[in-house]
User: Which sequence fits this backbone?
DNA sequence: CTGAAAGCGCTAACAA
DNA sequence: TTGTTAGCGCTTTCAG
């Protein structure tokens, strides 16, 4: 241990300090510092010796101390509204990959589910001075929050949704939604319902809006009628898809032959309830989603794939590059999407068949 | 800003320091420190004044500095093998709830998917001196890793699985599995297959083993025959459930009337493929899982519920209590489980009916 | 109740 | 190539 006196009264954290290593190796702390960080200006012999001693003593630099000295924490923050929903957990994994590879730590800030909407406003305190950069995952943010973020003046990027004035990475939501709707139309559907995501008014988040717009535009383009009664909404969960199905079906009047869902989870909700109600997929109802959730392949759900993990990985890379001094590394980028046709969509033709094929 | 000279050359992090606040409030840094942390020995008047100034200046204490001074980071680490699987993402959410409530940060260490098995061995470096305590999520750990962890001499608890010599929180896996199998037996099933989890030999992780043992014991107890060909395994994913179904069905010989799956995701895989193959659930095949995954209710999957979020929340609370000086706060605890009967299980009776009811 | 001052462990000029 | 030395910003005795 070091020689100072003031140590004993502190919180008993054991731990070998750089001084211990320096002493044991017969060099100065400065040299140890260079050696362990792999910096130049250390002779091979000295370096080897120091590394040996460090290893032996089990030395690990204190992140607080080096953080204080350098002004960097080597930690990046990830802000998410949920962690257990598909998009977010995948994105976190992606961010982690890049972070791990570059020896950074990941600090997770989960804004969802904590108290009131008001209180969730991340007290600057939360992230301030604790992270070197921030990755925001597809959050609906208030203007106030955006301002806060920008004041914190650290590299920042948002993944999975536009937030005004912030660089973002995500798919072209308009094009993705349009591709889904076109697929349905090409199959011959004309009676198409829409299950869109929450609007979250006043929360600066336009992913739902953009997808709705795409739906309307493509329908109009094709000269198809958009029925108001078939305009349903959900919150991206399976549950909300189930509820939407019932609102659609437990009501008199004609039924759509296809439904475009703004997320796979909602599409699954539709499929579960449809099946339960004896509505066959895709004979009676074609269902398409967006995402390509882990379960979608198993369920045969046709969808427009996106890769949140890759989006987050890229965003993280940009952040880290920026921190490495590459100015302009962080820039808005459009991520790819791809239509994946499976068995939940088909032509509306067989619909009226009185008896199902022996299936 | 402060007055020192050595500042300019550092990494341009702006930021108001405690000295700035002290100066602006006309008090010493010691007093500011007490005031902002809500410690006693500050007159109400002074405190108010300081808080006002701090607010105005946007002061936030540097975590590195206070970490260095106190030896605490106010961060706890969460070690997980995956983040996007149900159990883990739920557990992370649970841990976060408690952490957030107590003003701690959550540092996520994702061991899965990173390079080779060897390399994944968490270099002590990774967590050492960066966190005050560690929550390990249901990890299969090598002996070496366990040793490492114990050397790091910080509060530690594992959630969701036994790890020898470590305090753990989780359901009684034996009882939970037994409850599932008994449910099947009570329904009248005698031909029961098992889809268990990976063994991960040599990784100190016995959840799969325990569940297998329970299955065998209960079957024996009931005088039922356990067929070797009906002993399947998977890795807890939907995909592996699908594969298992095919191994079971694409083979000549009698078929089971029920299957006990060690996880809901695997059970879902079975259901998806069974449905696709025309095997009706539960008329032809009853399926039961363990977990109560988010999708289980929607799918009508009978299961034994557990709440990873609550387990992790409790584990985190113990860790934090321990850090608060409550010695012995961390102790192994059995979490509750509960059989949830839905529509994927039923009596094997109708099995031989030549024609399905108009369903 | 308040302030002075000595560190916490590490880094980064600057000298040597 | 290596060491000296001044901090980084905050906490915590200890005195007053």
Assistant:
């Amino acid at each position: 241990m070091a020689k100072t006196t003031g140590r004993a009264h502190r919180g008993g954290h054991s731990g070998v300090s750089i001084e211990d290593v320096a002493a044991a190796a017969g060099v100065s702390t400065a040299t140890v510092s260079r050696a362990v960080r792999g910096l130049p200006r250390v002779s091979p012999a000295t370096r080897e010796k120091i590394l040996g001693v460090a290893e032996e003593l089990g030395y690990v630099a204190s992140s607080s101390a080096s953080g204080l000295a350098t002004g960097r924490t080597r930690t990046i923050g990830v802000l998410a509204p949920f962690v257990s929903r598909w998009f977010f957990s995948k994105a976190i994994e992606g961010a982690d990959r890049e972070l791990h590879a570059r020896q950074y730590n990941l600090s997770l800030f989960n804004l969802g589910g904590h108290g009131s909407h008001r209180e969730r406003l991340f007290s600057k305190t939360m992230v301030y001075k604790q992270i070197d950069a921030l990755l925001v995952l597809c959050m609906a943010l208030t203007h106030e929050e955006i301002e806060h973020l920008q004041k914190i003046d650290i590299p920042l990027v948002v993944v999975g949704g536009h937030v005004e004035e912030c660089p973002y990475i995500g798919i072209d939501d308009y094009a993705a939604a349009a591709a889904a709707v076109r697929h349905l139309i090409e199959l011959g559907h004309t009676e198409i319902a829409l299950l869109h995501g929450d609007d979250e008014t006043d929360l600066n988040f336009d992913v739902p809006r953009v997808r709705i717009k795409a739906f309307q535009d493509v329908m109009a383009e094709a000269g198809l009628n958009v029925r108001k009664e078939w305009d349903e909404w959900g919150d991206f969960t399976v549950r909300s898809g189930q509820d939407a199905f019932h609102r659609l079906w437990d009501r008199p009047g004609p039924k759509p032959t296809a439904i475009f869902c703004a997320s796979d989870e909602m599409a699954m909700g539709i499929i579960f309830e449809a099946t339960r109600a004896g509505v066959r997929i895709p004979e009676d109802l074609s269902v398409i989603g967006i995402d390509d959730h882990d379960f979608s392949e198993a369920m045969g759900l046709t969808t427009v794939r996106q890769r949140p993990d890759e989006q987050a990985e890229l965003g993280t890379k940009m952040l880290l590059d920026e921190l490495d001094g590459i100015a302009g590394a962080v820039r808005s980028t459009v991520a790819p999407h791809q239509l994946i046709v499976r068995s939940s969509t088909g032509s509306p033709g067989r619909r009226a068949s009185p008896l199902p094929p022996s299936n």
Observations:
- Confidence is low (pLDDT under 50) at residues 1-13, 116-121, 351-359 of chain A.
- Chain A touches chain B through 61 residues (CB under 8 Å).
- Residues 173-306 of chain A form a domain with the Rossmann fold fold (CATH 3.40.50.2300).
- Residues 2, 4-7, 10, 15, 17-19, 29-30, 32-34, 37, 61-62, 64-70 of chain A lie near DNA strand C (CB under 10 Å from a C1').
